[in-house]
Amino acid sequence: MLRIGLTGGIGSGKSTVCTIFRELGVPVIDSDEIARELVVPGSVALQQITARFGPQVLRNDGSLDRQRMRDLVFDDPDKRQQLEAILHPLIRQEMERQIARLHAPYLILAIPLLLEKGWQQQLDRVLVIDCNEELQRQRATRRDGSPAHTIDRIIASQIERNTRLAAADDCIDNSGSLASLRTQVEMLHHHYLMLGKRNGPPSPQKTL
Ligand code: ATP
Question: Which of 36, 98, 109, 173 has the most crowded CB, counting CB atoms within 10 A?
Fold first, then answer.
């Protein structure tokens, strides 16, 4: 099965593109969804996170306070590394488990920080969703109600647009309308179907 890694900056349109792929019947595995499911109350991951960072990262109901956790690691590379050391192996393991159950010419692995994490080696192609920073800021602030400076901080923490684009095998330009976005996804879908058929049976060496 052809593995397409989908990435892009905050507010670039990754979720919107994933929805369109899903509507076309393409399996989409989302690393953010997996990360959320991994830290439900009672999970091993949440126990490890609480042991490392203390009960301050929990809400009253025992669930992870994701915003608090994000704030805690945002400017602290050591803490971020410790959190990732807990979560990343579990995310990769769960992705592999989900992939093993799928049968399709290709699948999408939506990984917002794919290039920052260096996971591209384990994928067949990297698909970047791109728009300029002004649009990212506008769309993300409108969607989240967050102030522009918060979005700017996140943009600054992510890989630079040009570096991301240079790593892309395929790119979707999401600076236009939703209709234009859909057309581009449909075109890529046909391309990937063709490549997936040519690709043949899955390679046993490829693991995330
Ligand atoms: P994040 O990195 O924060 O998860 P994302 O990359 O998944 O964001 P989306 O949530 O898909 O981005 O899009 C951000 C916002 O912009 C959403 O409200 C979405 O509906 C809107 N949006 C996406 N593409 C377009 C477009 N072409 N025209 C207008 N609005 C758009």
Answer: 109
Check if 15 has its Cβ closer than 6 Å to any atom of ligand 1.
Answer: yes
Query: Nearest C-alpha to atom 25 of ligand 1 is from which residue?
Result: 178
Model pLDDT for residues 98-126, shown as the tens digit of each residue: 999 999 999 999 999 999 989 988 899 99
What does the pLDDT look like over 10-60, one tens digit per residue?
Answer: 999 999 999 999 999 999 999 999 999 999 999 999 999 999 999 999 999
Q: Which domain holds residue 75?
A: 34-101
Q: Is residue 207 part of a domain?
A: no
SS3 164: helix
CA of 158 to the centre of ligand 1 (A): 17
Ligand 1 center from residue 202 Cα (angstroms): 32
Ligand 1 atom nearest to CA at 174: 27
Give the domain-ending residue among 51, 67, 101.
101
Q: Got the DSSP string for 59-111?
A: -TTSSB-HHHHHHHHHT-HHHHHHHHHHHHHHHHHHHHHHHHT--SSEEEEE-
Ligand 1 lined by 137 (C-beta under 6 Å): no
95 and 42 belong to one structural domain:
yes
Smallest CA separation from ligand 1 atom 9, residue = 13
Say which DSSP state 113 is in.
T
* Same domain as 46, residue 89: yes
What residues contact residue 58 under an 8 Å CB cut-off, 6+ apart? Answer: 50, 64, 65
* pTM of the predicted model as reported, rounded to 2 decimal places: 0.92
**Distance, CA 159 to ligand 1 centroid (Å)?**
18
The domain boundary residue, chosen from 101, 121, 138: 101
Residues 129 and 189 in one domain: yes
